[in-house]
Specification:
By secondary structure, this protein is of the alpha/beta class. The protein contains ten helices and twelve strands. Helices cover 41% and strands 24% of the residues.
């Protein structure tokens, strides 16, 4: 099979019209150059160059091969240029996987900051409803970087970024809306029907576990697959909702309370292997933009 070096030697001999000048331009010895051209001729099944007394010219086979050799070399130059631009954070594409709540509550500000600094680097975002689905997708090579709850027993690098702080949402006129200090124990809502999440959604599991620690199992008035819909449904009076504080709309007409005790979920950026420069730069932007959500007010 032809190599890039052999194709480069062929093109240079044709362009200079001489093995001697080609060897000088390529900084190789003439015997080494001739050996590589003969190896290429052997691989392609016939002579590529006709050696004349004062010049070298391509044979019919050489003329047929030459445009393809030039195209391959041009592609190789473009490949190296793209790699250099990506290594310099000037171009490229990064695949980022995350869970729904972080895609909604954390990543918009991060992506805005990233675009300001690296407008030519494209981000392909993949979202998953559950942290275990995210972990499995990342392990299978589904993205360059995952942003989600800190994974257990992960073999690759993990960079902890902060915590998701969770809030309780009730209708504005709910009798518990004015709870002292703006905090409310989940056990106070044990007899309520809840705005719950669809089976398989990571927040469904988190709500069930949080309520179990408070001594009850939440009954579902309605289940939603959309994290952003939960506070709206709670505000409309369908039941209390436990939601990430970062996804609360600023104009939400509802009572927003702190769970007592607080409910928090650490999250991190993680990769399969040591991240390259582009992935590291994105993780740095994540760390700079990410702040643990303060308690709801």
């Amino acid at each position: 099979m032809a190599t890039l070096r052999q194709l480069e030697y062929l093109v240079t001999v044709v362009d200079t019209g001489s093995f001697t000048r080609a060897a000088e331009q390529l900084h190789v010895t003439q015997p080494a150059l001739s050996h590589q051209v003969r190896a290429l001729e052997s691989a392609l099944g016939g002579p590529l160059l006709e050696r004349l007394p004062r010049a070298v010219r391509p044979t019919p086979l050489g003329r047929a091969v030459l445009p393809h050799a030039r195209a391959v070399l041009a592609d190789a130059r473009r490949l190296h240029a793209a790699a250099r631009r990506t290594a310099g954070l000037e171009d490229g594409e990064l695949e980022v996987a995350t869970i729904h709540s972080l895609a909604l509550g954390i990543l918009p500000a991060v992506l805005r900051a990233w675009r300001r600094e690296h407008p030519e680097v494209r981000i392909r975002l993949r979202e998953y409803p559950h942290a275990e689905q995210l972990r499995a997708a990342m392990a299978a090579g589904g993205a360059d970087l995952a942003v989600g709850p800190v994974p257990a027993d992960w073999d690759g690098p993990v960079r902890e970024l902060g915590v998701e702080e969770f809030a309780l949402v009730l209708p504005a006129d709910d009798p518990l809306a004015d709870s002292p200090g703006g905090a409310l124990a989940l056990s106070a809502l044990a007899d309520r029907d809840w705005v719950h999440y669809a089976p398989g959604h990571g927040l469904a599991e988190l709500l069930d576990q949080s309520c179990a620690r408070a001594g009850f199992h939440p009954r579902a008035a309605v289940r939603t697959e959309q994290t952003s819909a939960a506070p709206m449904l709670a505000a409309a009076g369908l039941g209390p909702a436990l939601v990430p504080a970062t996804v609360l709309p600023p104009t939400l007409d509802a009572a927003v309370l702190r769970p007592d005790p607080p409910i928090r979920r650490p999250f991190a950026a993680y990769t399969r292997t040591r991240p390259d420069r582009l992935t590291t730069a994105f993780a740095d932007t994540l760390a700079a933009c990410t702040r643990p959500a303060g308690p709801p007010r």
